[in-house]
Write a structure and sequence with these properties.
42% of the residues lie in helices and 21% in strands. Strand 7, helix 6 and strand 8 form a beta-alpha-beta unit.
């Protein structure tokens, strides 16, 4: 149910990239010095507009490529956030491209409270990196990882992709072995999704390659097996974390509404809040906010975004308030992506609805299919169900 206190989760979208990757459907554009400076000023204005309603326990700068911002631009953002008392987050993540990490920048981020880095590796195969349109090489991955460690980061996520056109099972196994050997605290790994208005989608439509579902399933099974062998705990369909280091249990309970033992200590608390239907502010061009049952979306146009904020206006393009049952169904669907599934009392506290009453038949259907596991305390997807979590989740949506 919508809360009454300040919002505890903040997402900031940095829309600039050195070049557009062939698979990316997120709003981004080529970096331009003048526009980036204007964006930073506009972002600070937007932060000022929502600051009174924010007490961040998690902060996430995504993109685009946040690490493209230069030292001066980061210093402006940090100065504004410190002045507004927004920088004391328990977990503060910044996404980085391996080609845009320097020791000076990494140290600046760490000194100002950033304590988690998500590095977009995608692949360690040079041919596949080129196929995806990535600007980094495999060597840059290892170099940047070392830089992050030297700067003091002890919580690093590596982001990988599988089922890339041209990727064989042997190449995927080799990438996994090398990535896991690096010793990161977190691993995210997503199957390629072919979204309209991307280069890969156009190539698929032109029949330049075909999708091999059996190979994708084999790659997913390899991911789960190798990650477990390397000491990672799977806590969501595509996310794996270690149980080690500083325990953030108090932040975990406050942000995610989960018992401590349902997620590993190095789980991404910001994303857990999404999957649990929590409120969050999203700032920057194209960013979405979900605050007290109302979803708003900013303009996906950086110039327009800047113009509105320069006039003192929120850059909101659309607003949607779902009926309570539809909102609860959406929350149920997202939460099923987590290995822990939904504890019934946690779901009731989050939505005001009883999962057993409104979705009892759907849970039974998934259980009979072998995709779901129903107990007295909770409902969760099985290993087979997690592989097809999107299809399973569709049963829980309500209009």
């Amino acid at each position: 149910m919508p809360g009454t206190g300040p919002i505890s989760s903040l997402y900031v979208h940095v829309p600039f990239c050195a070049q557009k990757c062939s698979y990316c459907a997120f709003y981004s554009e080529a970096s331009n010095g003048e526009l980036v400076n204007r964006y930073v000023e506009a972002l600070i204005h937007e932060l000022q507009l929502v600051a009174e309603d924010l007490r961040p326990k998690t902060i996430f700068f995504g993109g685009g490529t946040p690490s493209l911002l230069n030292l001066r631009q980061w210093q402006q953002i940090f100065g504004a956030m410190e002045k507004l008392s927004l920088s004391a987050g328990a977990e503060w993540t910044v996404e980085c491209n391996p080609a845009t990490v320097s020791l000076d920048k990494a140290r600046l981020l760490r000194e100002h409270g950033v304590n988690r880095i998500s590095m977009g590796v995608q692949s360690l195969d040079e041919a596949l990196l080129a196929r995806l349109g990535r600007i980094h090489s495999r060597e840059m991955v290892f170099k940047s990882y070392d830089i992050l460690r030297r700067a003091g980061f002890d919580n690093v996520n590596l982001d990988l992709m599988f089922a890339i056109p041209g990727q064989t099972l042997d190449v995927w196994r080799a990438t996994l072995r090398e990535a896991l050997a690096m010793g990161s605290e977190h691993l995210s790994s997503y199957e390629v999704i072919y979204e309209e208005d991307t280069a890969l989608y156009a190539q698929l439509q032109a029949r330049e390659f075909a999708v091999d579902e059996d190979l994708a399933c084999a790659m997913y099974e390899e991911l789960v097996a190798q990650a477990a062998q390397a000491g990672f705990e799977q806590y969501e369909v595509a996310n794996f974390a270690r149980n080690r280091g500083a325990d953030a249990s108090s932040a975990r309970i406050g942000v995610a509404g989960l018992p401590q033992d349902d997620v590993p200590t190095r789980a991404c608390l910001h994303n857990v809040n999404y999957w649990r239907g929590g409120d969050f502010y999203g700032l920057g061009p194209s960013a979405t906010s979900y605050v007290r049952g109302v979803r708003t979306k900013n303009w996906a146009n950086t110039a327009r975004y800047c113009e509105l904020l320069e006039k003192g206006c929120r850059p909101v393009e659309s607003r949607e308030e779902l009926p309570a049952l539809a909102r609860a169904g959406e929350t149920a669907a997202f939460g099923l992506r987590m290995v822990a599934g939904w504890p019934f009392e946690t779901f009731r506290a989050a939505t005001g609805h009883d999962l057993r009453r409104e979705w009892g038949a759907d849970m039974q259907r998934l259980s009979e299919r072998g995709w779901g596991q129903l107990s007295a305390e909770r409902f969760r997807l099985t290993a087979d169900g997690l592989r097809f979590a999107d299809s399973a989740a569709e049963l829980f949506l309500r209009s």
